[in-house]
Amino acid sequence: MSSSGADGLNWQRLNPWTPVVLGGRALVIVALLGSEEASRGTSSREVTIYIGIAILAASVVIGVVRWLVTKWALDGVTLRIETGLFRRDARQLPVARIQAVDVVRPFLARVFGLAELRIRLAGGGKSGGRLTYLSEAAAVDLRARLMAGHHGLDMATPEPAERPIATVATGRLVASAILQPATLVAIVFVVVLLALESISPKSADGAETGTGLTLGLYLFGLARVTWRRVATEYGFAVAAAPDGIRLKRGLFSTVNETIPFARVQAVRKSEPFTWHFLGWCRLEVDVAGSPGREQGTRSGKVTKALLPVGPTALADELFSNLLGLQQFPLSKPPRRARWKSPLSYHFLAAGDNGLVAAGSCGRLKKVTTWVPLEKVQSVRRVQGPVQRLLHLATVHVDAAGRDVRAEFRDRDVHEADALFEKLVVQSRSARRAVSGHGNAVHGPLGVVAPVNGAAGDAQPVDRDGAALLSVTGQPPPPRP
Amino acid sequence: MNSNPGWMTPSPKLWSMRFTEGAVVAVLVAVAVAAGTASQGAGLAVGLAVVVLVAGVVYLFLAHRRFRAWAYQEREEDLVVSRGVMFRRESVVPYGRMQFVDVTAGPVERIFKLKTVKLHTAAAASDARIPGLEPDEAARLRDRLAALGEAKAAGV
Lengths: 480, 156
What we know:
Largest interface: A-B, 44 and 27 residues
Shape of chain A: globular
Shape of chain B: elongated
Oligomer: heterodimer
């Protein structure tokens, strides 16, 4: 399995079962194609079988070749992945720049006890890496080494114990997935259809089947979306560990994610109106970067749910205890902003506390975004013609990602100008304070609290009283 | 604000470029409209052509205001780009957040020997683009931004 190359690195191969799992995927596709062919009965059975065997053989050969040419090695500071038969692709992933590490177990891989390791780096669709597949034990072990290396510890440090924080019950998850605006649309659709039916039972047949078909397709799509949501977020659990936030979810394919605290770019809370009467909300964090080449965008938005659904009180607790952020009141824009944003004025609010900027907006779904000032990528002031008439302006505080920002929407012009200046200065000093901890690109990464490194009173605290995050930026002591 | 010292503006050639673009399009559209309606009377054809040309003049007036609104300032810690008349936008991008600098020149820009410098950060919305720079200024800005970005890199 492993060999020491001329470069003195301990090169390792992926798990030898990898081609089998990849071939198994092809088997599913071939079976689907074959059954469709058989049901249509257009071509002879033999041809179908030969085509199926050819596809299978090709996928196995490709899998074996891929396995043969792929190697990885980990030295103290870099994970190297080399792959490709004709076009060699050699990647070096600096451990210090890791944004998140995911252990993904697709259903078929789970059967073989395999797992995929995805490493996200900042900046760029091609800057991440993935190892498909490792044995589960090897994947977990490599993750532990990467995270230890990321925090500047000896890589042999065992993975620190995690402290479970919250789980989501299946019943609540299913209820939340059903309680979406699309379901309301479906209900209205059915009610209207039934009402029409009762008014004029003898409507034209053609129109009726057309409507029925549309409804059927809509319901099918709805069921698929709902099912996917339940399947991906089934058994959700969030836990805190000294090396970051740990997330666990999935029904058939399971995902374990680890996000270092300092890598959280923004926090978002969504409250759809369909959940309002239950007092539920969804809490997400944004992490920069994407795993490997799949996402084509330069800086794909990577959103991870910290709580797919839960009572607001629980979300607030995660907010303060897990992320170490403090709640602060948001203020509404002046009443005249109603003329500019009549449909969303009721949710418009924004504020900052010198460490974090936050803004909420939305028409039917209230979305509040918090951006730690040290993570601010740019600050923008925008004023449109209607806003100029009303003496309003909007200030955007951008974080890494495609559309991640806290918006101070429709504020009074003077307030907006002052905010613009203030946020630029405050984010500069927040950034400096963090780089002062050695959290620069090239330096060793300290474990720095995501936001309030200065306000040390809201640190997440371990059961035995030790601070999970050290304020000084020193890495936590190695666990025995 | 643009009269403050330290604010730089794109090359006046950007206005020549915008003017040429607008004028050529307006004249071409006017000729096409006139030719298309000529069969229905010369009066109508000329009238429509005049309407198109007037619209072109209005567009050029707005384009000139937009051209004059472009400005940028290299401050100690960040780059400020300000633009727009109807929709006024002002962006502040810290050098430390810079991921890379793009210098591009489209076909029309190449005719006028102009370049666009764009500063990319990890946030797609950052919007720090400066069009219509002379090649020398574009090169100077690119090198300076690259050097400052290196010196003040803050990671993500």
